[in-house]
Structure formats: structure tokens, C-alpha cells
């Protein structure tokens, strides 16, 4: 009896498996859940950080007061900044025609002196 020997060449590429839509859906769900969990942990971290910053704990119940003060401080700063900017604007607007004429005269004088210096 003679044995038949057949050479079988295996291709290195794996056969393409078609993924079922159900499997894909489950994978997507899993990923979304992981994202949600991550977001929740981030939120917790942020809350803790804010508490540390303001040196308060939830148990004291003083969070609102402190936050209110912080908010007031911020608004006051904003107000003062806007006030300063508006004052600057007013100053520029207040320049009357008289002031402008004075400026012109001054400039003319300066020009004259400059031209005289050029001639020398």
C-alpha cells in the first residue's frame, strides 16, 4: 500500500470573517458604557478638585456661601475692568474741537522747527 502525500500550503492571511451586526452593536454598547464611566469619574474628580480649592467639604454645607463670594469677586473685577475701559473711551471722546486745534497748532510748530533744523 502506498500513502498519498498531499502538500497543503497555508496562506498567512486569515480568512475574512464577517462580523454579525449584533456583535458590532454589543461592542459599540460596551465602548459607550466605558466612556460614560470615564466621564463620571472625571466629574467626580472635578468636584473634588473644586472642593480642595475652596477648602470646603460637602458635609459643612458652606459651599454656596463660598461660591457666592467667589462669584461676587469675579463680577467686581469684571465691573472695574469695564469701568476703566469706558473711562478711557470717554477721555478720547471728550477731546473737543478746541483741543484738536491746539494739537494741530502744536504739530505745525514742531514741523516748522523740524524744517528749520533740516535747512541748517
Task: Based on the model shown, name its key terms.
120 residues; mainly alpha; 2 domains; 3 helices; elongated; coiled coil
Number of separate helices: 3
- N- and C-termini, Cα separation: 126 Å
Q: How many whole angstroms does the radius of gyration measure? A: 39 Å
SSE order, one letter for each helix or strand? HHH
Based on helices, strands and strand pairing, what is the structural class? mainly alpha
Average the pLDDT over all residues and give the rounded result: 75
Strand content: under 5%
What is the total domain count? 2
Low-confidence runs (pLDDT<50, min 5 residues)? none
Tally of extended strands?
Answer: 0
Question: Tell me, what's the shape?
Answer: elongated
Helix content: over 70%
Amino acid at each position: 500500500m502506498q500513502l498519498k502525500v498531499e502538500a497543503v500550503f497555508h496562506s498567512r492571511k486569515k480568512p475574512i470573517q464577517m462580523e454579525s451586526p449584533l456583535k458590532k452593536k454589543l461592542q459599540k454598547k460596551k465602548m459607550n458604557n466605558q466612556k460614560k464611566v470615564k466621564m463620571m469619574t472625571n466629574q467626580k474628580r472635578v468636584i473634588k478638585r473644586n472642593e480642595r480649592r475652596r477648602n470646603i467639604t460637602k458635609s459643612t454645607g458652606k459651599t454656596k456661601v463660598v461660591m457666592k463670594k467667589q462669584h461676587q469677586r469675579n463680577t467686581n473685577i469684571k465691573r472695574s475692568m469695564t469701568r476703566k475701559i469706558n473711562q478711557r473711551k470717554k477721555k478720547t471722546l471728550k477731546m473737543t474741537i478746541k483741543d484738536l486745534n491746539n494739537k494741530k497748532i502744536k504739530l505745525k510748530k514742531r514741523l516748522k522747527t523740524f524744517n528749520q533744523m533740516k535747512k541748517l
